[in-house]
Structure formats: C-alpha cells, structure tokens
C-alpha cells in the first residue's frame, strides 16, 4: 500500500465532504427568495440566492471531479482495513479530540451564544474558553500569568473589535 493510494483515499474522503457541504449551500440558497425581495417582485437573476446557488453547484461539480479521479486511481483499494485501523486508533488520537473540542466550542458560541447572549459577553466567553483550552504557555497546563493574559485578551479583544466596527465602520455588532 503506497502513499499514492493514501493520497487518493484522502482525496475521496475530502471530495465527499465537500459534496455534502456544496449540497448544504445549495439547499440554503434555494430557501432564499427567488421571485420576491423585500416584498417586491424581482427577476430570478437578481435573487439573493443566485450567487450561493452557483457556488454550491460549482463546489459539488469540482468535488465530484476529484472523487471520480480518486476512484479511477484506486482510492477504494484497501479502504476497509484503513478505516478500521483509523477507528481503532481514534480513542488515543489527541489531534482528533482537540479538533472535536474546537468544533464543540465553536458550535456552542454560534448556536448558544450569538443572538441569545450579549455579543461582548458571548465573544469574551468564547475567546476565554478557546484560549484556555488550546494555549499552553511554556508547555504547562496552568500558568497564572498566562491565564491573566488570556483573561485580558478575551475581555479586551471583543471590546476593541466592537469599537472599531461601531465607530470606524459604523456597523453595530449584535
């Protein structure tokens, strides 16, 4: 089993994930209004869903091309044992758990924080959680000075961004 086959398997998995993402983008684009905008009739080519729909279709098309090429070049040879080996090593794979934690924190921020909590509070809590989980100054698990810096950045960062958006760009944050 050569590295070329491993690359083809990675291409296939990535292409399948991109096809799913393209389908989700296309589905959401089709949920947008196509014949009315702000209660006024409009042409389909002026629809807010047109550009995301085109991007979704292109993403599906190009990912399908990558998937077909990977299949032609033998992406399925030895795929089963490779998946079983990956699943067997999953509980010990620290990188996977760190990625899962990052996705969990991002999901909590988007789904539970934004729109439900004050923007500054939600963003400060998110920054604090992310930096506390992933920043290890000096390789130690907990460092009081490092935690003080994390706390300062997570409190002052959202305030600075909010001020730039509200004063310089005149766009209020939620």
TrEMBL record:
InterPro entries: DUF1468. The keyword Transmembrane helix applies. Pfam families: TctB (PF07331). The chain crosses the membrane at residues 12-30, 50-68, 95-112, 146-165. The keyword Nucleus does not apply. It comes from Paralimibaculum aggregatum. This is DUF1468 domain-containing protein. Residues 13-174 form the DUF1468 domain. Keywords: Membrane, Transmembrane, Transmembrane helix.
């Amino acid at each position: 089993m050569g590295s070329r086959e491993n690359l083809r398997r990675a291409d296939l998995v990535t292409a399948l994930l991109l096809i799913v993402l393209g389908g989700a983008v296309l589905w959401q684009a089709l949920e947008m209004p196509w014949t009315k905008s702000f209660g006024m009739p409009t042409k389909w080519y002026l629809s807010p869903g047109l550009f995301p729909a085109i991007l979704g279709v292109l993403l599906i098309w190009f990912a399908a091309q990558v998937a077909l090429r990977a299949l032609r070049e033998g992406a399925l040879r030895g795929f089963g044992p490779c998946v079983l080996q990956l699943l067997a090593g999953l509980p010990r794979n620290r990188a996977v758990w760190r990625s899962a934690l990052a996705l969990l924190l991002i999901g909590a921020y988007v789904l539970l924080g934004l729109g439900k909590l004050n923007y500054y509070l939600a963003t400060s809590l998110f920054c604090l959680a992310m930096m506390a989980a992933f920043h290890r100054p000096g390789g130690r698990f907990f460092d009081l000075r490092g935690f003080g810096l994390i706390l300062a950045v997570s409190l002052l960062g959202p305030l600075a961004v909010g001020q730039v958006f509200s004063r310089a760009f005149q766009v209020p944050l939620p």
